[in-house]
Design a protein that fits this description.
The protein is an alpha/beta fold. It contains eight helices and seven strands.
Length: 242
Amino acid sequence: MARLRFFLFASYWMGWTALFLAPLIVFALIGKPTRPIRAATRLWAHGILLGLRRIVGLNYVEEGREHIPSEPCLIVANHQSAWETLAFLVLIPDVAIIAKRELLAVPVVGWFLRRSPMIVIDRTNGTQALRTMIDGCQQAVAAGRSVLIFPEGTRGEMADPVRFKRGVELLYGRLGLKVVPVAVNSGLFWPGGGPARAGTVVVSYLAAVDRALPTAEFLRSTEGAIDRELDRWRAAGATVGA
């Protein structure tokens, strides 16, 4: 039954996405206006989350949202599933998400993502990728937008310890923003390479990290905060996945 529901959801995904082809053509003809494109991208993500809830039975709750400051901040989240890449377009509407270039290969959606909330980097391009990331983040902050990064670089398993790759410490040093760690347990319900199943994803916003910490302490503090929060669900992982 779970696989049938996910098959129906995949069909819904394709149909819902196809509806955005006409707006894509209109936006392309009138000069790629940023604000309408961002609004359309958020609408698309809302529709995907609605499909997950109604067809698959996958919902979500947020905890600790009061930890997000009113001014721009650096949001640092663990990455377990495709779910959070989509959901943060809705959860933090004007956030600039640092994303890998492969996302742009998704038909129709890739066009919108390139021109809306994403800061797209080519991870194979080393130093240039870091420069693109830093420049894009500085422009986003100057425009009053927060920045979101998945510093593990790729999806991890629930049991894996949280370990950041190079890049997040550069943003911490260059942007001078408050850092909000976020723990997500989406891998319990939509693991990489598998179908999504019914359940409730928890998005837990943790207390902001002091922006004046030395870099090494910032890394230990942020990794540790997310890791400890994930411990809430690790014991339940085997039961949920069974």
